[in-house]
């Protein structure tokens, strides 16, 4: 972490973590919650450069992740998938590596693939709106709450993508560059110009509606099931409540989350157990107590499922969480 001494609002840092919760905590000023959807040990890395009005970043994660939350108030975001074993799914809509995603202080529900690398910018809303005010089509689309998916031709997308990733990498190696007012202004101008050029050159700009019907069905089903973790309703009861057949419910979950309803719900419950164990919230409780609270009654099956999901035993997670909560010994 390298904030400049004379510029306390400037931050240059790179972090690595083998713990999904610790990784999420590194995302300062973002209100996001991560859930691991597939099985295996998580590894994450996050590099960012932040100064008044703008943040640029590169994020790498090895596992399939669902990210939910909000950007900071009155902030606009633009991002792109650089690498991954499949597309990203944003608010129920799939986007591949050629898609530029832009949002204006919108609610985010993002599912990323395994071995994913994302790059992006977070920009103060007034700054971006001022830069796009002469582009009537974008000015009309980039309204509060908007989510857009754009398909610029590679010739206009590549300069922004290259400048974005190279800027993060260069400044991470030489953080003192950000002490220069002129450098910061040139970097900001170049990033905005290349982003707007890519957006202007897009031959398709389509609003992604947060209220997609498939996503509404998925969200309602998850709400019903997780409201009673110790006695979850049957899938037939869920189908009846959301007004979907079992086949329709399965189709919606696979389209939006890439998992069957049963597999997703198990992953969410396992994540909830892990969060309690790793945060030390289980102080005075056994692993079994926490597992039972989330509807896992057969401890042997639970332990096997947990180790398969996170590549460690629940007792290991609890031990690490308690060590994290133990105050250091003063000499």
What does this structure look like?
By secondary structure, the chain is α+β, with helices and mostly antiparallel strands. It has 2 domains: 11-207, Jelly Rolls (Sandwich); 213-325, Homeodomain-like (Arc Repressor Mutant, subunit A). The protein is 43% helix and 23% strand. It has helices at residues 20-25, 125-132, 136-141, 154-173, 181-200, 213-226, 235-242, 246-257, 261-278, 287-293, 299-310, 314-325; strands at 11-17, 31-36, 44-51, 54-61, 65-70, 75-83, 88-90, 93-95, 100-104, 107-112, 116-124, 147-150, 205-207. The strands form 2 sheets. It has an 8-stranded antiparallel beta sheet with strand order 1-3-4-11-6-9-12-13. A hairpin with a 2-residue loop joins strand 7 (88-90) and strand 8 (93-95). Helix 4 packs antiparallel against helix 5 (181-200), helix 6 packs across helix 7 and helix 6 (213-226) packs across helix 8. The chain is globular.
The succession of helices and strands, N to C, reads: EHEEEEEEEEEEHHEHHEHHHHHHH
Average pLDDT metric = 85
Q: How many individual helices?
A: 12
At the first level of CATH, what is the class of the largest domain?
Answer: Mainly Beta
**CA-CA gap between termini:** 28 Å
Number of distinct beta strands: 13
Q: Which segments are poorly predicted (pLDDT under 50) over 5 or more consecutive residues? A: none
CATH architectural grouping of the largest domain: Sandwich
Q: What is the alpha-carbon Rg in Å?
A: 21 Å
Strand arrangement in the largest pleated sheet: 1-3-4-11-6-9-12-13
- CATH-derived topology of the largest domain: Jelly Rolls
Percentage of β-strand residues: 15-25%
Structural class: alpha+beta
CATH H-level homologous superfamily name of the largest domain: Jelly Rolls
Biggest beta sheet attributes:
8 strands, antiparallel
Can you give the helix content as a percent range? 40-55%
Assembly context of the chains: single chain
Count of the domains: 2
């Amino acid at each position: 972490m390298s904030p400049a001494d004379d510029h306390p609002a400037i931050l240059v840092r790179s972090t690595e973590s083998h713990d999904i919760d610790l990784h999420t905590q590194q995302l300062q000023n973002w209100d996001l919650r991560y859930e691991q959807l597939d099985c295996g040990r998580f590894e994450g890395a996050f590099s960012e450069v932040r100064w008044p009005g703008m943040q640029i970043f590169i994020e790498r994660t090895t596992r399939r992740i669902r990210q939910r939350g909000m950007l900071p108030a009155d902030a606009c975001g633009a991002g792109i998938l650089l690498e991954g074993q499949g597309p990203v799914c944003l608010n129920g809509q799939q986007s591949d590596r050629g898609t530029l995603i832009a949002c204006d202080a919108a609610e985010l529900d993002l599912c990323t693939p395994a071995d994913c690398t994302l790059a992006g910018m977070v920009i103060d809303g007034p700054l971006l709106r001022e830069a796009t005010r002469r582009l009537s089509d974008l000015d009309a689309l980039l309204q509060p709450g908007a989510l857009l998916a754009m398909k610029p031709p590679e010739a206009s997308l590549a300069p922004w993508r290259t400048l974005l990733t190279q800027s993060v990498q260069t400044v991470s190696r030489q953080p003192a560059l950000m002490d220069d007012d002129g450098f910061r202004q040139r970097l900001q101008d170049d990033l905005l110009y290349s982003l707007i050029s890519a957006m202007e050159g897009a031959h398709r700009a389509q609003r992604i509606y947060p209220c997609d019907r498939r996503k509404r069905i998925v969200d309602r089903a998850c709400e019903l099931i997780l409201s009673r973790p110790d006695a979850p309703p049957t899938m037939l009861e869920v189908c009846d409540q959301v007004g979907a057949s079992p086949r329709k419910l399965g189709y919606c979950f696979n389209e939006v989350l890439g998992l069957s309803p049963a597999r997703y719900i198990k992953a969410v419950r396992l994540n909830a157990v892990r969060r309690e164990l790793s945060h030390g919230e289980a102080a005075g409780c056994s692993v079994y107590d926490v597992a039972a609270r989330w509807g896992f009654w057969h401890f042997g099956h639970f332990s096997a499922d947990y180790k398969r999901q996170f590549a460690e035993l629940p007792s290991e997670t609890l031990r690490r969480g308690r060590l994290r909560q133990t105050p250091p010994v003063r000499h």
